[in-house]
Amino acid sequence: MMDTPLTLLSILKRAKFLFPKNEIVSRGVNGIFRYTYGDFYKRTHKLAGALNLLGVKPGDRVATLAWNDHRHLEAYFAVPSMGAILHTINFRLSPEHLIYIINHAEDKIILVDETIVPVLEAIQDKLKTVKVYIILSDKKGATETKLRPAYYYEQLIEEENSGFQFSEDIKENDPAGMCFTSATTGNPKGVLYSHRGLFLHSMAIGLTDTLGLSERDSILPIVPMFHVNAWGLPFGATMFGSKQVLPGPAPTPKDLLNLMSEEKVTLSAGVPTIWLGVLKELDENKSNYDTSSIRGFICGGSAAPRGMIKAYEDRHNIQILHAYGMTETTPLVFASRLKNNLLNLSSEEQLNYKAKQGLIVPGIEMKVIGKNGEVKHDGKEMGELLLRGPWIASEYYNDERTKETFIDGWLHTGDVVTVDEEGYVQIVDRTKDLVKSGGEWISSVDLENALMTHEAVFEASVFGVAHPKWQERPIAVVVLKDDYREKTTKEALLGHLAKQFAKWWLPDDIIFVDEIPKTSVGKFLKRGLREKYQNYLLDKES
Amino acid sequence: MMDTPLTLLSILKRAKFLFPKNEIVSRGVNGIFRYTYGDFYKRTHKLAGALNLLGVKPGDRVATLAWNDHRHLEAYFAVPSMGAILHTINFRLSPEHLIYIINHAEDKIILVDETIVPVLEAIQDKLKTVKVYIILSDKKGATETKLRPAYYYEQLIEEENSGFQFSEDIKENDPAGMCFTSATTGNPKGVLYSHRGLFLHSMAIGLTDTLGLSERDSILPIVPMFHVNAWGLPFGATMFGSKQVLPGPAPTPKDLLNLMSEEKVTLSAGVPTIWLGVLKELDENKSNYDTSSIRGFICGGSAAPRGMIKAYEDRHNIQILHAYGMTETTPLVFASRLKNNLLNLSSEEQLNYKAKQGLIVPGIEMKVIGKNGEVKHDGKEMGELLLRGPWIASEYYNDERTKETFIDGWLHTGDVVTVDEEGYVQIVDRTKDLVKSGGEWISSVDLENALMTHEAVFEASVFGVAHPKWQERPIAVVVLKDDYREKTTKEALLGHLAKQFAKWWLPDDIIFVDEIPKTSVGKFLKRGLREKYQNYLLDKES
Predict the structure, then answer these.
(1) Ranges for the AMP-dependent synthetase/ligase domain (chains A, B) (predicted)?
(2) Which of A441, A470, A488, A526 is catalytic?
């Protein structure tokens, strides 16, 4: 067979050949911008020409601090197709982390949205490698910013007439993209994406049995384009010529539902908190929107609550497509689509499968390692998920922490999962949050979820603390709803849990608190809780 | 990203993990055999263990002369997963070509169906490299054949208990399969398929926008498993866990329709002559069959007649999925699926697109080179189709003819095509059959098809012959239907053509004959016609 490389350039060329009239729609500060893949192809070349004149060479890092819009999409293809590396940055990180990331990646040029410029102005002095700032805006002319040197994107595009052409020399294992993921402690860790990985991932999300991206789709990625390439949707959509609907700066649920109605969106993607917000708006103002074109909402990032999946189905006839991945996995690894033999089950039984993260996609291999080696596929035995495959990272970028996570050719995800008889995988915890009690494993997440189904509970977090006999035992901190304070006992909540769990799973204590500390992205800060309560049971016993 | 290889073994392992209960159904001389991917996985290991004991090493060629059945499918995975090469042989070739192919490939072991054993017995003395014959049959015990040494497949499987395990050492560019394609003159030419090519091709046929293979499908490949791996369907179906329905020895249209009815087939694949036969049976005995499960019949090998596509739609509510490929292309290159903007067209207008070979699949690149370089995409300008990509062959196996076909990194298909504004490709001729008249190109196929729509015409073949002024001019040989003989004039047929074609396209003469010579696979023997009539116009002028 021919030794032709799998590259993003081939995706770009395909879109221009087959789908030049298909639309890309982009919501910006001045309203909706609308153009075609044909126009997009031309502007992508102009952007690459401008970057070339600004000195970008193969292997250089070009960063973005940008929303999901058409200019960001142009950078998605222009930068890698020049042989350079597109480094998408989460602009909501702390200034310290932003400085670390930009310096560690040695970014040469930064493309920054006009609404995000102040974030960079505040740290500009600390950025050691950045040569040029390009402001993403409709404006042209002289820039109004303290960033130096800075140009308006549209000014560069307008002036570019070098007739730049992409070279065909890119090898499929060359890096194309880069993204940092936050670490439990310390600085974020960088992941490189290769052309091969991104190309294969694009094929994988076009499979009928995964997400089934198609030319007939109109795709709205809500997940940010700085977050694992918006789960690869911009690359996949371009490969298949799907209409792309990019929601721009800080879209509200109303904005998103209006875009879905007006652009006949068929497929959208976001994290559970996004979908909970959209659900609330739909419940309250259903008649304002037309969701008849929607074939699915992809939900990933963290587990989709079962109740939410059901609410969308029952009240709005919308299917939630549950998926799983990580920054290190490009990201798609699992997608929860019902197998043929499950189609005859009741809708409640089907929901049990839809609420799991799903089946492994073709191309990726998994192992689940529990206390005694590979776990049984019984939906119960827990183990850490290990992954291997052509779109799984092999290291962290110039980072000693590589050796903690990439071992013997496998990515150790740190996620604890079960695998059922049908092969559906469910995340039950993070390895570090799992409670190891007398040689047995207890899922803190399962206990938390069960506590939060009790009518009195507003929030609950479960974690392991030291125990003289059992090594670790779970305890829970609980915030009660206002109406239930002083009226709800520890015994009532333990009784509630006892209906679902074996006795040895039940927390040794439940502590009522006013608030649970959270991370910057709204997750419970379990590390902090564990530190605060580490001697709680030891002190109690003594 | 990790450097993990794309191999057939990973497909096999995925099927065993996720789809162990899904069915494989195989029609044999003793009726229907039915088992699961779980059983299939075990027997594949046993076959590999037996082949290993018989001395098969990585790189060895193991040939098959077999129908589409479960044992052939076991060989499809066992042989490549050992690192050996599966050489599928068309047992209908002439004895001379069979001898050439087997000796040229240096096949070490041949798996042969019991119904095909006489073919090999007749040529056994001429086979220089074959060490062992394995008879595919339900039988066990001592074999009844003149082939030596020979074993029954089931005897080997039953006795195998070595616990053979596949190695993980296979590289993705290692050869996995081999198939010979007939040449215009001389011996057949061999093509090697790599693990990478077959894996990527399997992904490609699972895309929603190509063939959309799915776990929910029940797939009946009628195209032989010796013909470009039954178009890759057995590999793709195993990757996705589709039910496989294998039709066994010499199925009739009745047999095929019964299988479709009973096994709830959703997708089938074959050449136009197969589908014409099935159509006839359906038209005559529709009430005998239940075709409600069918979502499509894939039609390739040669162009699907427009009337047939329409007949299936109108009379049986069955979609024909038109596709194109060659032995050299693994094979899928084009699939004719309607783009979003064509869905509002009338059914007649849509038929114009469905009757074309379709849109290029992701991963493959094309160029169409006409008289003046790359052709315009206007649906009219003709050029030779050139292809490049990871599942396109790069050479013929140990064959000097490689240099005629593989030039500057492109496969020169020898097919003349047009490309329309939407990117749909249509085959209009073979380069060697194109009539080159005064520097312009005339499609012999277009003229033939038009002639055959005339009520009086049974068969027609058009080809170019020498002309003193125009270099070449087309002439036609025509067989009239019995009722029209002696009643139909040359002028009537030319008048019929003049309604559709420019004057300079019309044949210089039409010659009525009783019969048109054909090749062994039923195509017009144009080379013979050209030789016979080469001086026809020169003689006429003088």
Answers:
(1) 30-397
(2) A441
B358 interfaces chain A, CB cutoff of 8 Å: no
User: Which residues from B are below 8 Å from A341, CB to CB?
Assistant: 21
What is the structure's pLDDT at A244? 98
CB contacts of B194 in chain A (<8 Å) are: 1
Give contacts of A239 with chain B, Cβ < 8 Å. Answer: 362
**What CATH architecture is B435-541?**
2-Layer Sandwich (3.30)
Distance from CA of A161 to the nearest CA of B (A): 25
Tell me if residue B366 falls in helix, strand or coil. Answer: strand
Q: Is the pLDDT of residue B489 over 70?
A: yes
Q: Which of residues 210-249 of A touch B (CB under 8 A)?
A: 212-216, 239-241, 243
How far apart are the C-alpha atoms of B429 and A377, rounded to whole Å?
55
Residue A57 burial (C-beta neighbours within 10 Å; 0-12, 13-18, 19+)? exposed
Q: Looking at chain B, how many residues does it have?
A: 542
At B521 the pLDDT is: 61
Residues 71-110 of B with CB under 8 A from A: none
> Does A212 sit within 8 Å of B391, measured CB to CB?
no
Mean per-residue pLDDT, B479-504? 93
Instruction: Give chain A positions within 8 Å (CB) of B359.
Output: 18
A313, A316, A317 from A310: Cα distances, Å: 5, 10, 9
Q: In the CATH scheme, what is the code of domain B364-430?
A: 2.30.38.10
- Asked if A11 and B362 come within 8 Å (Cβ–Cβ), the reply is yes
Catalytic residue (one of A328, A384, A448, A472): A328
Q: Model ipTM? A: 0.93
Question: Is the CB of B365 less than 8 angstroms away from the CB of A341?
Answer: no
% chain B with pLDDT above 90: 89
Question: What is the per-residue pLDDT across B67-94, written as a single tens digit (0 to 9) for each?
Answer: 999 999 999 999 999 999 999 999 999 9
Within an 8 Å CB–CB cutoff, is residue A21 touching chain B? yes
Residues of chain A with CATH 3.30.300.30: 435-541
pLDDT at A521: 61
Whole-number Å distance between alpha carbons of B237 and B239:
5
Q: What local confidence, expressed as pLDDT, does residue A389 receive? A: 98
Contact assessment for residue A465 and residue A510, using Cβ atoms and an 8 Å cutoff: no
Q: Where in chain A is the domain with CATH 2.30.38.10?
A: 364-430
Q: Is any Cβ of chain B less than 8 angstroms from the Cβ of A363?
A: yes
Is-catalytic flag, A436? yes
CA distance B389 to B368: 15
Tens of pLDDT, residue by residue over B112-135, are: 999 999 999 999 999 999 999 999
Report, in angstroms and rounded to the nearest whole number, the Rg of chain A calculated over CA atoms.
24
Where exactly does CATH 3.40.50.12780 map onto chain A?
8-20+33-193
A10 touches chain B (CB under 8 A): yes
The verdict on A394 touching B (C-beta cutoff 8 Å) is yes
Enumerate long-range contacts of A274-277, CB under 8 Å, 24 or more apart.
A274/A222, A274/A223, A275/A299, A275/A304, A275/A308, A275/A312, A275/A320, A276/A305, A276/A308, A277/A252, A277/A253
Residue ranges in chain A whose pLDDT is less than 50: none
Q: Choose, from A310, A367, A436, A532, the residue flagged as catalytic.
A: A436
pLDDT of A522 = 66
Say whether B516 sits in a helix, a strand or coil. coil
How far B424 CA sits from the closest chain A CA (Å)? Answer: 8
Euclidean distance between CA atoms B49 and B54, whole angstroms:
9
State the CATH class of domain B8-20+33-193: alpha beta
Region B45-56: mean pLDDT is 98
Q: What is the pLDDT of residue A349?
A: 97
A472 included as an active-site residue = no
> Catalytic annotation on A328?
yes
What's the predicted TM-score (pTM) here? 0.93
